[in-house]
Design goal:
The structure holds 2 protein chains of 2 kinds.
Chain A (H helix, E strand, L loop, with lengths): L1 E4 L10 H13 L3 E4 L14 H13 L6 E3 L2 H13 L3 H10 L10 E3 H16 L8 E4 L20 H8 L3 E2 L18 H17 L4 E4 L2 H9 L1 H8 L7 E3 H8 L17 H6 L3
Parallel strand pairs in A: 1-2, 1-3, 3-4, 5-6, 5-7, 7-8
Helix pairs in contact in A: 1-10, 2-3, 2-4, 5-6, 7-9
Chain B lengths: L1 H4 L4 E6 L11 H8 L4 E6 L5 H12 L5 E6 L2 H14 L7 E5 L1 H5 L7 H21 L6 E4 L3 E5 L3 H11 L3 E5 L14 E2 L4 E2 H14 L3 E4 L2 E9 L2 E8 L14 H5 L5 E2 L11 E2 L9 H5 L12 E7 L1 E4 L3 E3 L15 E3 H7 L20 E8 L16 H15 L4 E6 L9 H10 L3 E4 L2 E6 L5 E7 L4 E7 L1 E6 L1 E3 L3 H7 L27 E3 L9 H20 L2 E4 L4 E3 L7 H5 L5 E4 L2 E4 L10 H4 L5 E3 L4 H12 L5 E5 L1 H12 L8 E5 L8 H9 L4 E6 L4 H4 L2 H11 L7 E5 L5 H37 L1
Parallel strand pairs in B: 1-2, 1-3, 3-4, 6-7, 6-16, 7-10, 16-27, 18-25, 19-20, 19-25, 20-21, 33-34, 33-35, 35-36
Antiparallel strand pairs in B: 5-28, 8-9, 11-12, 12-15, 13-14, 17-26, 22-23, 23-24, 29-32, 30-31
Classes of the chains: A alpha/beta, B alpha/beta.
The complex binds flavin-adenine dinucleotide and iron/sulfur cluster (4 copies).
One iron/sulfur cluster binds next to strand 19 and helix 12 of chain B.
Chain lengths: 280, 769
Amino acid sequence: MKYSYYPGCAQHGTAVDYRMSVEAVMSRLGIELEEIKNWNCCGALHVDDRSTRVALSARTLAATKGLDVATPCNLCYSNLMRANTALEDSDLKNRVNGALVIKYEGNAKPKHLLEVVVKDLGLAKLVEQVKKPLKIKAVPYYGCLLTRPENKFDSPENPGSLDNLISTLGAEPVKYYYKTKCCGGPILITNENLALELAKDLLVMAKDSGADCMVVTCPMCHLQLDAKQKAVEAKFNIKIDMPIIYFTQLIGLAMGIAPAELGLDKHLVPTDKFISKAGR
Amino acid sequence: MVDNEKPKNIGVYLCRCGGNISDVVDLQSITESVKGENVTVNIQDYLCSSAGQEKIKSDIEKGKIDRVVIGSCSPKLHLETFRSMVKGAGVNPNLLEITNIREQASWVHDKEGKDSVNSKVRGLIKGAVARMSSIEPLVPLEKKLVDRTLVVGGGIAGITTALELADDHEVILIEKQPYLGGHMIGLSKTFPTLDCSQCILTPKMVAVHNHPGITMHTQTEVADVAGSPGDYSITLKHSPRYVDIKKCISCGACTRKCPAGAIFLPFAQTVPQAYMIDMSKCDRCGACVKICPRDAVNLDAKEEITTISVGAVAIATGFEPIDPSFIEEYNYPSPNLLTAIEFEEMLSAKSKTGMRLQKADASFPERVAFVLCAGSRDFTGKGRKHCSKVCCIYSQKQAQLVKKMKPEAEAWIFYIDMRSAGRRFEEFYHHTQEKGVNYVRGKVAEIIPKQDGTLMVQYEDTNLGRKGREIFDIVVLCPALIPSAGTKELADRLGVPLGDDGFIEEKHVKLDPVNTLNQAVFAAGCVLGPKDIHDSVTEGVSAAHKVSQFLGKGMILIPPEKPMILECNGCGDCVKACPYNALTLSGGKAMLSPLACTGCGICVPACPIKGIEIRNFTRSQLKAQLKAMLEDAPGVVVFIDPYAYAAADIAGVNRKQYSSLVRFISLPSIHVLDADVVNAAFEYGATGVMLIEGTTDEKLASRSDDLYKTLKKDTRKHKKPLRYSHIETAQYEKLTDLLNVFASQAGAKAEKRSRKEKGEEKGEETMDA
Ligand SMILES: Cc1cc2nc3c(=O)[nH]c(=O)nc-3n(C[C@H](O)[C@H](O)[C@H](O)COP(=O)(O)OP(=O)(O)OC[C@H]3O[C@@H](n4cnc5c(N)ncnc54)[C@H](O)[C@@H]3O)c2cc1C
Ligand code: SF4
Ligand code: SF4
Ligand code: SF4
Ligand code: SF4
């Protein structure tokens, strides 16, 4: 299984731990990721102008060399998907292609890494690699951009693929009503109060559910829920102490990969208690 | 035949329908092209008015005409009226037919050019005139009715129907639950007067139980239907109760002895008053059998099958709530998140909480929210489009009950529109407001269950233009009310069409609200759409009246369009083909039992020597109609059965446009057709032919594929498109889509052919030169 790989800016910045776990896990699962040469930022949620945003993604999509393009980031994924839909408008496509050196034909297929693992590889294959079923409870948190407004592999409002992945690894996905609520990450700079409030809602509900960790699929969610967890605790005067784990880290643990190789020592919320509970 | 020899004077009467028709169709020009030596044409503003009818009658009485073609609205509306009028004037009712130029022309082609609509109507009327000159007067057959009625469903509608009928006609009432009462026995107080539901219902249930004219079976459903209208043989399936209703005296001795809590009385007021066993709990210890003083318990009771003979059926199978779990953002089911029906039941005869409103932890809720339109008025394709009608009012009733039980408690109603139309309801709304209930206009976005058992409701208040969240102890969802499970199977067995919302289709929405398209089947209550008790009772009374009227005649008239066996060599093919065993061989010849025959026409193409014809749908009569219909302009001929015809009527009522090239020929069933007729259609200029059938009778529909294949093979030489489609009455949108696609395909093919022909002609010319 080979994919064109679009890591997104965070993999080379704040989400080193994510990158480490992606590399450790994907190679062992036989999923080959060929990083796109000279890729650019997807614009995240910060580029307002629609044509510019679409053009940024089109440039990436044009460089995928006929392979499906995989990305580990919900924002990148959302932008690539939205660009593909927007480019069905031939006027826009012509305009965008006018600005590109390598023209985009409109035939690339963006996939989130979660989809690659759950659907392309399949949970039946994954379970063969599980050496150490994880005896923990985990919150399946998808974030607001992975499934909405729609993707082709899960329900927008009540997705289940991450839940299924968690059970496959031997852990118990807890009932969590905020699966697709926004974590506040994208507005952290512009409206910190609201951003922290949104994160608090998620974290409190996660805490109440009795889970040992919260599983995420996006470096932005991770940044907000892990790095800003202290700020939430301080602002609302509560204790959360909830490890935020990338789904690739969770897979890695179940496969028996050493926590350090998965970047689990790089989190701001300490993960050692969680790791020992998970049976390492 | 004497009648065939004297010239027929056909009167054609076209109706303006107060502009409904004449604004689109140029009736004057139709008149000019249709009138002829024996054909007079007359235009009226409203043919159905007494003036319109009087005109036809006086023309007959003056001897001017002896056959009538009417161009007006669908025959579903006024055919019977017109026919009884001409009968009074001395003309065989059969010799009046209606051509539908409203639902099938002016209402569905008004966006097209006038010329094409006029051309269609001209074709239809000419076809009808040709048909009218070729058909023979027939006298309907009479069949004795069975004077007994099956009422299906023991809710308030079924109970009312049964009681209203039973003094004069024998009634069998079946109910699938172990007790009577339907949803009403699970209600608390009833709006708008707030009287207690069981207080007004129990006497009715007891009356059903005690009425000598009513035989009641609980835990019973229809398993099969055989026979024909007026004379049905219906198979019933009775599930076991394990306690003999007739013997049990409700002493409760068994319950006291049962170690498994398996034998019980559903609730104190249950009718019939008898205990029952839940076999999933019972461990067959036999204690109840031993203790029962009446020997009423039988642990080995089995499902039973019986057969009853009835003349009429009243369907009163009511409604069920939609399962709100499909609204993912509401997270149903969750503790303290109830449907309105669960709320009612807590405060009803069926209560398991001692008639107390309580949370999962048995305490009284301080804050209760009602979320309206949960699954109703939803055009996204996930829920139902219709308004469930009663929830606006019952939720206010429930809110009043909360306030009454505890005045400091809060009740909030989240609504889109507050619908309180009709007598006493606006007052009820006003009164609820005075009680201090909170109203929020806006749809609830999500309901999030909290760890402590409370529920958070997120909403938008569209009056104040802001978003909000509130925490409640109990949230009540008011689910869409949909037809109860099994309604479709039952309706299919009885040949009764449903609307696209799944409720039973009335014979006429306004004028025949409790009749169905089957003259022996009637309906009442929520199976015709959501409604309150008052309206369910009104319909129960009406249905009883209609059944009584139907049975009172003692006879049922059977359409006289039956096969005639003109020639026969005794091969027996038709006997084998007939799905209703209506043909036998007797003395080496085929013989028909007209009362068993449904007139389906399967025997017509079955006969290898073309010895069978259906009266008034003979090959030559159909051809005559086709020829005249296609004389002036080509079109797409659509042979259509009565169920699919009803779909076309609904398309008309909804003004669903489709190609004016479409010309329907209405048949008792598409199975009367053979290649002779279809080939003739092509020869006379049809650019394409469709067979559309809506019957749910498997005996017919299962043969349609073969019919289609045979016709396709035997008409191949024309190289014109032929199609078959099954369209149930509810599927009118599918019908119009299909007609459009087919008409344009047929048109394209015809154009290609004519280009080719022109090319060939040219080719010939050049050769000549
Ligand atoms: C929450 C709620 C509150 C309401 N409150 C009020 C109120 O206060 N006042 C008011 O006027 N109206 C109220 N209504 C409306 C009222 O309940 C209905 O008008 C009434 O119950 C309709 O009666 P029905 O006989 O048509 O249907 P149902 O009550 O549904 O009865 C149908 C019966 O048929 C049986 N059945 C179904 N299928 C079959 C089958 N295949 N074979 C045999 N039996 C079958 C069912 O078991 C049931 O017993 C309320 C409705 C709801 C949902
Ligand atoms: S057989 Fe025993 S368990 Fe079953 S209902 Fe009777 S007493 Fe109860
Ligand atoms: S009656 Fe009221 S609550 Fe029920 S569907 Fe209609 S508008 Fe909604
Ligand atoms: S199929 Fe025709 S010939 Fe044969 S028995 Fe029937 S009517 Fe007679
Ligand atoms: S018309 Fe149908 S029911 Fe009647 S005899 Fe022919 S095949 Fe049988």
